[in-house]
């Protein structure tokens, strides 16, 4: 296999290094912004040098972002070159277009590293849905946020400290607001729902609230009551609708999800034959992510492609009518806007709401961006409130 590698940042360099011990995976040309030699490869700033090289049969895209990546990946697929990408934003935004391009040209396409870093979650989802109906997925899909929330909880560190650490470790996106505002999780949830439910979910219809407003006092409030805060993505397939949303969520400290530490992800699905299955591993970082890019390349060598046989015909919009209790904490003006009749209890500086439709809560949060909100577990009982 002769490979054109697009991008030589954290993941790209990891792909290059892991490929060195696999002579059948030959990286011929690297497209990168910076100058500088890379042993054994031609370095170019011009993508057409890869596109027009008939020797290169496979393109690996790890530059991230949507605009340029989409242009390059679609051009490569249309030219019949196989593509492996780790780009979740691209896949979430252009899922049906990418699948259609691969189907038309017959190019093979894989994206296992786009969700779950090292886990191989998407490959497992594809296998799972060959045999059964999947009606629920949820999980921790962002290593940066999990790292931050975990260290804030277990080591009582503050928000800025842990964000800097996650950046230094190479977990965070170039602009970490994609992590802490939940957009990265939303992209990964969208892709997972697409594969699990055989749909094309309109990614902008997935409501998102992130962790950027959380503080150490919130964490203490949760710890004292036996909860741990995680940023979760959840999607359900009901008979009449698809639900999908991303939000900080409190899990009981005895729950397995609470024990997911540092940059680890935990992704789960519920299937008609298997019941619930869980998949875990490092969700971010150079080698964990590069590992699954290499796995995809090995799958291409074995002739396996992403499922391009069923390209969804039209986009689905998330409709979130599930009702949950929420913890809300903000300044007194913001909280005064929450109807008194819909408060069930007070937790230190925050309030607990009565059960609210997820869609309604996210609508309210859009107008109250300084408020930190966390959903209580689905089976939360009012008598648990203290
Ligand atoms: N910034 C992402 C994360 C990288 O923290 O999970 C892996 O997709």
UniProtKB/TrEMBL annotation:
Domain Aspartate/homoserine dehydrogenase NAD-binding, chain residue ranges per copy: 7-110
Pathway: Amino-acid biosynthesis; L-methionine biosynthesis via de novo pathway; L-homoserine from L-aspartate: step 3/3; Amino-acid biosynthesis; L-threonine biosynthesis; L-threonine from L-aspartate: step 3/5
Keywords (A to Z) from UniProt: Amino-acid biosynthesis, Methionine biosynthesis, NADP, Oxidoreductase, Threonine biosynthesis
GO MF annotations, alphabetized: homoserine dehydrogenase activity
Record field: catalytic activity: L-homoserine + NADP(+) = L-aspartate 4-semialdehyde + NADPH + H(+)
Oxidoreductase in keyword set: yes
Domain Homoserine dehydrogenase catalytic residues, every copy: 124-297
EC class (word): oxidoreductase
Enzyme Commission code(s) on record: 1.1.1.3
Coiled coil: none
SUPFAM superfamilies according to UniProt: Glyceraldehyde-3-phosphate dehydrogenase-like, C-terminal domain, NAD(P)-binding Rossmann-fold domains
UniProt family annotation: Belongs to the homoserine dehydrogenase family.
NCBIfam families assigned to the protein according to its UniProt record, in alphabetical order: PRK06349.1
Name of the protein in its database record: Homoserine dehydrogenase
């Amino acid at each position: 296999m002769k490979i054109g590698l697009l991008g030589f940042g954290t993941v790209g360099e990891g792909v290059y290094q892991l490929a060195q011990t696999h002579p059948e995976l030959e990286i011929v040309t690297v497209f990168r912004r910076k100058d500088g030699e890379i042993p054994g490869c031609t370095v170019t700033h011009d993508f057409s040098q890869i596109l027009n090289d008939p020797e290169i049969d496979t393109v690996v895209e790890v530059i991230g972002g949507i605009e340029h990546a989409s242009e390059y990946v679609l051009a490569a697929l249309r030219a019949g070159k196989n593509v492996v990408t780790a780009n979740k934003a691209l896949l979430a935004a252009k899922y049906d277009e990418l699948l259609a391009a691969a189907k038309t040209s017959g190019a093979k396409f894989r994206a296992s590293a786009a969700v779950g870093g090292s886990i191989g979650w998407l490959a497992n989802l594809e296998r799972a849905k060959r045999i059964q109906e999947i009606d629920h997925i949820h999980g921790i899909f962002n290593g940066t946020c999990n790292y931050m929330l975990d260290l804030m909880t277990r080591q009582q560190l503050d928000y800025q400290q842990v964000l800097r650490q996650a950046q230094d470790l190479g977990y965070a996106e170039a602009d970490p607001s994609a992590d802490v505002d939940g957009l990265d999780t939303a992209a990964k949830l969208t892709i997972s729902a697409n594969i699990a439910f055989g749909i094309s979910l309109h990614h902008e219809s997935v409501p998102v609230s992130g962790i950027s407003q959380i503080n150490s006092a919130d964490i203490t409030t949760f710890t004292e009551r036996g909860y741990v805060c995680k940023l979760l993505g959840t999607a359900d397939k009901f008979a009449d609708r698809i639900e999908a949303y991303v939000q900080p969520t409190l899990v009981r400290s005895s729950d397995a999800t609470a024990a997911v530490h540092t940059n680890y992800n935990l992704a789960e699905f519920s299937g008609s034959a298997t019941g619930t299955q869980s998949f875990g591993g490092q969700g971010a970082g150079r080698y964990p992510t590069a590992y699954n890019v290499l796995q995809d390349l090995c799958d291409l060598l074995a002739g396996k492609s992403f499922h391009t046989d069923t390209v969804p015909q039209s986009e689905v919009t998330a409709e979130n009518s599930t009702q949950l209790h929420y913890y809300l904490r903000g300044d007194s003006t913001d909280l005064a806007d929450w109807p008194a009749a819909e408060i069930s209890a007070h937790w230190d500086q925050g309030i607990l709401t009565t059960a609210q439709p997820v869609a309604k809560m996210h609508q309210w949060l859009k107008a109250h961006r300084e408020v930190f909100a966390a959903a209580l577990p689905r089976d939360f009982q009012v008598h648990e409130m203290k």
